[in-house]
Amino acid sequence: MKAQMILILFLWFGYSSQTTTAQQNNPGKERIARLEAKKDSIHQEEKDALKVKVQRIEDRLQKAEISQEEAQKLKREAARQHAQNIENKMEIVNNQIALLRREEVQDQEDPWADSDLVEEGFETDRQHPGEKEKWFGNRTQTQLVVAVGFNNAMMEGQSVNDLDFKVAGSRFFEMGLAWRTRVFDHTNWLRFKYGFSFQFNGLKPTDNRYFVQNEDLTLLQEHSLDLDKSKLRLDNLVFPLHFEIGSSRRSEYNDRIHYSTAGQFRMGLGGYAGFNLGTRQKLKYQENGERIKQKMKHDYNINEFVYGLSAYVGWGSTAAYVKYDLNPIFESPNEELRNISVGLRFDLD
Questions:
Q1: How far is 315 from 263, CA to CA, in rounded Å?
Q2: Which of 1, 4, 16, 206 has the most CB atoms within 10 Å of its CB?
Q3: Phi, psi of 20 (to 5 degrees)
Q4: Helix, strand or coil for residue 261?
Q5: Residue 266, Cβ neighbours under 10 Å: how many?
Q6: What are the residues whose beta carbons fall under 8 Å from the beta carbon of 160, sequence distance 6 or more?
């Protein structure tokens, strides 16, 4: 008999522990049970309140403060009011129960709902205890960067009117990939912008000149024939880094929060560093009635390392763009000529 009692107590204790644990692990079920119990209390509370109000009406009738007809009218109005109270309160409770049951189903379908792990590149936001977590989406986004515009080179103190290169004829082109990462978890006003780009900087000398390399010196020299075209192109691979600030639109969904910079103001400040991949000079001219195209690939005493400052400002994917090489184009003992570019930049998602 004692053994049976011990077994019964053991089984009862194990069942109670499992029930308690299950309830602790399912706070939603506990809240649903409390709300179901609250539905019964709503009926009783409104009935008790109606009884008190009817009794007051009877007291006023006994004191001849109101007539029998007025008393009946007040009773009907009180009954209607408390019936409406019951209906409204029951609707609120039923909506709360439906919401909790729907969230419970979503938690069961979501493999990440009870996980302590967060996928790299994602964060969650919990506003209040018990509220469903919301994904913030990818913290880092990839963009294609394309830039075009005018290119030139000048020495310190040189006037724009004394430039050695054609303003409209000298151009640059840039193309690369950039990664944009927001700095803070729950706001997107500050971002890191980093990646790699291929820069093609073209310089067209004025006055029928072209570049001539004479040992350590690279000089502009007038050509003996009339040049149809004279162009020096520097091909660089650089790694830009910018701090980007600007507004963004925050869209909030049931399970995630998304930031978009489409059509928003943005400004980037930073720089770049890299190296020269090669330098080419292209000449076009006529000699003895024959059209000649001459392509020359030399080092031209070009600095191998490239570094400079850059900035952009604009709206959406389009921005005005400027970059300036801090390194001289040619190595010492040549004159310190530095490249500068102004144009448009397109950051395409």
A1: 6
A2: 206
A3: -65, -45
A4: coil
A5: 21
A6: 154
Verify cis geometry, omega within 30 degrees of 0, for the bond prior to 240: no
In tens, the pLDDT along 110-139 reads: 443 433 333 333 344 444 444 445 455 678
DSSP conformational letter for 105: H
DSSP reduced 3-state for 36: helix
| Per-domain residue ranges of the chain | 21-109, 139-348
The answer to whether 270 touches 243, Cβ cutoff 8 Å, is: yes
Q: Which residues contact residue 294 at a Cβ distance below 8 angstroms, ignoring those fewer than 6 apart?
A: 282, 283, 284, 285
Q: Residue 193 in contact with residue 266, Cβ under 8 Å?
A: no
Q: Are 279 and 218 in contact (CB under 8 A)?
A: no
Q: Give the contacts of 153 (CB within 8 A, at least 6 positions apart).
A: 163, 164, 165, 203, 329, 337, 338, 339, 340
In Å, what is the CA distance from 121 to each residue of 267, 314, 330? 24, 27, 43
Residue 41: both structure tokens together: 């209390």
Query: How many of the other CB atoms lie within 10 Å of CB of 297?
Result: 10
Q: What is the pTM of this model?
A: 0.60
| Separation of alpha carbons 347 and 145, rounded Å | 5
Q: Check: CB of residue 321 under 8 Å from CB of residue 344.
A: yes
What's phi and psi for 41, nearest 5 deg? -70, -30
